[in-house]
């Protein structure tokens, strides 16, 4: 007797997949597995009743902190509230019960959703078309860099091996470009915290493939010279990559395509209604300008009259970047979010994101040092350098102190060009009351730094786990369910 296994997608075509038939012998387990790998005794597993296990996990969940528990102004991460209704839509059995290997005619609704979402995201970003396959922002970046490579290969310009990245860039940018085979050169910021156009001009040599930017930058600043920058890069034969993880700052206001960018990835799990953290789940769709459309991954979802189909017929495509069509539940939530918000709603979301950040910035800048004192976009960066020098209180102490007030700390020590950085992103979904509570808390922490600094050095005092040694926690994690 033999079992038919779906082993891999060995070849693909307009009509669907072809799977190899594998003959797997039908033998008892002990004859299939090397005896050195078989257990000799029954493993010791915890013996607990249903009620105890429920209490255990419920107790653990209460020790966790999430957006449903409190304010979470984690800069660069857009920890905003996501409407629960979108979770319901993503969980509809019509979506969750379909199989990625079903025939095209039986998943027309899902193909329509991919098609329409790609269309909406192209419109929002000002790009020509895209792919929803990548599973994360960094995966989108990698896909974008592969598109750069394919473009230069087609033009016989493989000597272009350098990608320029600003010092303030998110760490995944240089990492993704490196994995795709490029060398990284840093672009310096000028005294405004923006890309130095003068330095850039000197760096645009023949071997430059392009530039990776996010606008607004991770300092929360809008690159005012972007049109000039795009002109210079294109003139030098390069391409522009836009890290769109910060898209919630500009939706409906300006479009990366209109700024001159050629590729953008979006973090649907930040801007378009998927809660995230702890590594997932996510989606990092990639949208491109006209010059890169031919290189997009296959399959592309196309429409023929009333029918949607998977198009593999792209000679210059970089190929697949995911097993199937992306992280489907995330795509469904993004589509639901886009159509319920509408273009006016998306624009309003960005307006509130920027308004909330500027409100906090203005309230806090008299007490905490604001590194770049200018109108910010969706986030801003304070520095605790002076507090550290004068009061011995670091950004880490402030972050730990916030935990005792039920507030998640901001991102600290990033971007690295700001000493003792605290990067604050309130997002568009927080009320004025919550923002005022944060301001009051930060001012109380400042006062505590003066009156009782020891308490801040010992913070947090009220959390289930006190201050941990974060370096050791990474280097020697304890992963056992009970102590030996
Ligand atoms: C600006 C920026 N770019 C890229 C990324 C990478 O996204 P992901 O974590 O989904 O890979 C992030 C997320 O942390 C980000 O904030």
Describe this structure in words.
With 484 residues, the chain is an alpha/beta fold. It has two domains: 86-340, Type I PLP-dependent aspartate aminotransferase-like (Major domain) (Aspartate Aminotransferase, domain 2), CATH 3.40.640.10; 349-475, Aspartate Aminotransferase, domain 1, CATH 3.90.1150.10. It has 17 helices and 15 strands. It has helices at residues 29-32, 50-63, 84-90, 93-96, 108-125, 137-154, 172-179, 197-203, 226-235, 256-259, 268-271, 328-364, 385-391, 395-403, 432-451, 453-458, 470-475, and strands spanning 11-13, 16-18, 129-131, 162-166, 183-187, 208-213, 239-244, 263-266, 286-288, 300-304, 307-311, 369-370, 380-383, 411-412, 421-424. It has a seven-stranded mixed β-sheet with strand order 3-9-8-7-6-4-5, sandwiched between helices. The longest helix is centred in the last third of the chain and has 37 residues, at 328-364. The protein is globular. The two termini are 46 Å apart. The model is unreliable at 1-19 (pLDDT under 50). Bound molecules: pyridoxal-5'-phosphate (PLP).
